Amino acid sequence: MTYSIRRFLVVNLLICITLTTTLTAIGNYILDQRDIQQHLDALLGQSGLAFEALIGENFDDNNLAHIQQELNEIPGIVRAFYSDADNKNLGLEDKFQFQVWSKEHKLLVHSANAPLEPLSKGKEGFSNSSIHDGTWRVFTINEPDTGSLIIVAERYNSRLELAHNIARDDLFIMFLIYPLLGLMIWLIIGKGLSPLNKIAEEVASRDRSNLHPVDFSSVPIEISVLVDDLNKLLARLQNAFEREKRFTADAAHELRTPLAALKSQAQLALKLEDPQERNAAIKKLIGIADRSTHIVQQLLTLSRVVPEEAHALSNVSTFNLRTLVVDEIADIVPKALEKNIEIELIAEEKNLPLQGQMTSISILVRNLLDNAIRYSPEQAQIWVRLRASEKSIILQVADNGPGVAPIHRKRIFERFYRVLGNKVHGTGLGLAIVQQIADLHQAQIVLTSTHEDTETGFCITLEFPKLRFNQKNS
To answer: Contact, 122 vs 142, CB < 8 A?
Structure first.
């Protein structure tokens, strides 16, 4: 089942924003109620103190009558401030009222629409009062000199209406910008995901033979790991294709001569009438076939063994190198006996644990022994030495053959390189395979003569690190 990352992010982000915005609106409404009450209480107190200052201590009935007449005209004046479109606000003058009572409990002056009964029971300061037409928030002042009672009051409904209006306006703004918010999230996520589309387009538009790395210099950090792994995969594919092409080219190059020789020998055997000569020709055919088989086996081995980064080495295990060498010597002894060659194993320690690819190390040891037998004369001797140092395990194969001149030692690891004048049949691939396996295991190779004083014999020494690979790769 496939799904859209963009749609997933947009939907879930909008859900999260809606949830957090709703919780924020509820929290703001609760906090606004408290803040509004405190603010309006402060205004109510200031209004009461202002009335106290304006009325003062000296007032008579004529002044009070004049003041009351002016107060009765205020509602009309207030209505004149509003247009017909603002008729909904015409009730504002009824939301705030005040009263002034004498010490004889006589109503001296009051706002135009104030009730004629006391809005307060006389308790000084802030209090709540309920009368027949609703609940009021009251601020009361007892004038100590005149004994008058000044009451200013505000309907609770007006305060609740103010808080509701603020909350309603907040919700209106939120719903108004919600589509814009969704569009912005959609565009931003699309912009963030655009590198994925560019990489997909680049890979899709490539020719099937183009395995060059994908450029990820400008991609986000979050997908750089993915692109890096993709590039590693492309590199492995390119190496595999190159090995295949190299194997094909090498096989065509190396098998051309043996196949031609096979054809010539077969044609010659057909023309020979003497049974002995025909048998000799057939034996040569078998020898050429054996050489061709050896070439193919070496080429296949070389194509499989490719030096890579040590952490990429697969099938890593810990094994006893001494046991492995003993097994390889036992397998190759018949070939050594054909030339009366003696192989001696010199290993003081019975257990030499080595980490690596057991199969590859077996191929390495086999090629070293085969190379020593192949290029050593009749009745020669081969020494295989094993020892361990503090940080490494050392494998050494030496013979008392003609050896390799120092001038040729730098090139003997090249594929198909053979020393001029050497009449021994070979492919020139054995030591190339040895070097690739050594590189794969981070081993150091040293070439010397077996007998330094006479510069005879050939000795190859490999030094393997003891703990090179992570055990989890095994």
So the answer is: yes
What are the tokens at 62?
């004529």
Cα distances from 432 to residues 214, 305, 375, in angstroms, run: 32, 10, 16
Cα 138 to Cα 117: distance, rounded to the nearest angstrom? 14
Distance in angstroms (rounded) separating the CA atoms of residues 443 and 461 = 10
CA–CA separation, 183 and 302 (whole Å):
59
What are the tokens at 270? Answer: 């057909």
- Are 320 and 237 members of one domain? no
pLDDT digits (tens, 9 = 90+) for 99-137: 888 878 888 888 877 878 888 877 888 888 887 667 888
Alpha helix stretches (DSSP H) within 73-155 = 74-80
Nearest to 382 by CA among 419, 424, 337: 337
383 in the same domain as 282: no
Q: Is the residue at 183 inside a domain?
A: no
Which whole-number Å values give the CA distances from 218 to 197, 198, 223, in the listed order? 13, 11, 11
The pTM (predicted TM-score) of the whole model is 0.47
The answer to whether residue 204 is domain-embedded is: no
Neighbours of 36 (CB within 10 A): 15
Alpha-carbon gap, residue 392 to 464, rounded angstroms: 5
Domains of the chain: total: 3
470 vs 159: CA distance, rounded Å: 73
Tell me if 247 sits within 8 A of 255, measured CB to CB.
no
193 domain-assigned = no
Q: Which domain holds residue 127?
A: 5-170
Q: Which amino acid is at 152?
A: V
Residue 62, in any domain of the structure: yes
311 vs 260: CA distance, rounded Å: 44
Question: Which amino acid is residue 197, in one-letter code?
Answer: N
Final residue belonging to a domain, choices 304, 337, 360: 304
- Please, what is the average pLDDT of the chain? 77
